[in-house]
Amino acid sequence: MRTSSKRLGLAALMLAGAASIMPLAAGAQEAEAPAAAAPATADAPPPAAQGAFQVSEELEAMRYRHLWIAYGVIWLFVFGFVWRNWKLERATDRELAALEARIGDLEGAGVKSDG
Amino acid sequence: MKPFPIATALSALGLFAAHWLAFDFVPMERTMGAVQRIFYFHVPSAWLCYLGFLMCFVGSVGYLWTRRGRWDLFALASAEVGLIFGFIVLITGPLWARPAWGAWWRWEPRLVSMALMVLIFCAYWVLRTYGGSGEGVKRFAAILGVFGAPNIVFVHLAVRKWRGTHPDQVVARSDSDMRVALYSILAIMLVVFVLLVVQRYRIHKNAFRVRALRRRLSRLGAM
Q1: Which of B45, B91, B214 shows the shortest C-beta gap to A99?
Q2: B205: contact with A, CB 8 A cutoff
Q3: Which pTM was predicted?
Q4: B109 φ, ψ (degrees, to nearest 5)
Q5: Closest Cα to residue B80, out of A52, A112, A12?
Q6: pLDDT tens profile A12-47
Q7: Chain B residues within 8 A of A79 when measuring between CB atoms
Q8: Which residue, of B82, B157, B183, B220, has the greatest Cβ tally within 10 A?
Q9: What is the pLDDT of residue B47?
Q10: What are the residue ranges in chain B where pLDDT is below 70?
Q11: CA A92 to CA A52: how far, in whole Å?
């Protein structure tokens, strides 16, 4: 149980690590690519300065897509962690009760044989 | 009635309320549009990540000072929960940055220092999980916790000291509704954070008791 829990933990860490590193890798690729492809950058003039600035449909769709993915990640992390904790807590509670009962039996038997 | 299940049920309800605050209560931000709503979980997650690592620091100092196991378990539970919130920050940040900055990642001080701090606590977690339960491992992990947590100061001041792309003083410049939503969500997430730390602490404490009982059982079996 303990080993599979550790494997699950390591897998979760690797997954989280990979998810964190993916933007780094993507960032490195974008650094090589021309910056002109970017839809909106922090260096670009603010919308008011551009006059009739219209947010492209593509950018608007990307904003919503990224919003849902971000909230999905938050839910996945929080509830995945809660679920894993809940399973682990139940397993350790069960093991603890079983061990205490076994020790109680052994000690009880020892007392009887001594008496 | 037990307080823990009630608090868990209340925090679950609180999380639904937090989503209502983030998606319905606050107005749409004019420049960034819908993606700015990531802010309401991204920022509190960063603060709770700091808090988790700070609590790990306190627990580690307590353990090194007293050598009592409860400090060690407190440090471990806090670091684990802090790490979860750290990963949330590192993943939601680039998802926000791509439409806002036009890049997933920029090698700027706030982002890099945050990633490094999370990596330090990843090392702490790996050490505690795979290094065994010996006294030496606990001591080494406590030292790692003591040296890892002060990075919070560097991460927090990185924006002001080494000006990068990451914005500074966002909360102070926010609309009042936005601030109300942010602080309410922070309060809800703080409850979730405390519950998670308590739960992790209990799991580690029970695992410690299981190991002690196994040792006792093997001694009884040898009798």
Answers
A1: B214
A2: no
A3: 0.79
A4: -55, -45
A5: A12
A6: 666 666 665 555 555 544 444 433 333 344 444 444
A7: none
A8: B82
A9: 94
A10: 1-3, 168-173, 222-223
A11: 63
Q: Which residue among B92, B97, B122 places its CB closest to the CB of A74?
A: B92
CB within 8 Å of chain A, chain B residues 40-59: 41-42, 45
Mean pLDDT of A93-108: 88
Contact B108, B94 (CB under 8 A): no
Chain A residues with CB inside 8 Å of B131's CB? none
Instruction: Answer whether B65's CB lies under 8 Å from B51's CB.
Output: no
For residue B171, which amino acid is it?
Answer: V
Is B94 part of the contact surface with chain A (CB cutoff 8 Å)? Answer: yes
Give the Cα separation of B147 and B57 in Å (integer): 8
Closest chain A residue by Cα to residue B37:
A67
Chain A contact for B101 (CB, 8 A cutoff): yes
- Select the residue of B94, B99, B221 nearest A62 (Cβ to Cβ): B99
ipTM over 0.90: no
**pLDDT tens digit string along A47-71?**
444 444 466 888 888 889 999 999 9
pLDDT given at position B126: 94
Locate all alpha helices (DSSP H) within chain B, ordered by sequence.
Answer: 3-20, 39-66, 69-101, 109-130, 135-148, 151-161, 176-222
d(CA B58, CA B130): 23
What single letter denotes the amino acid at residue B202? R
- Residue whose token pair is 């679920």: A83
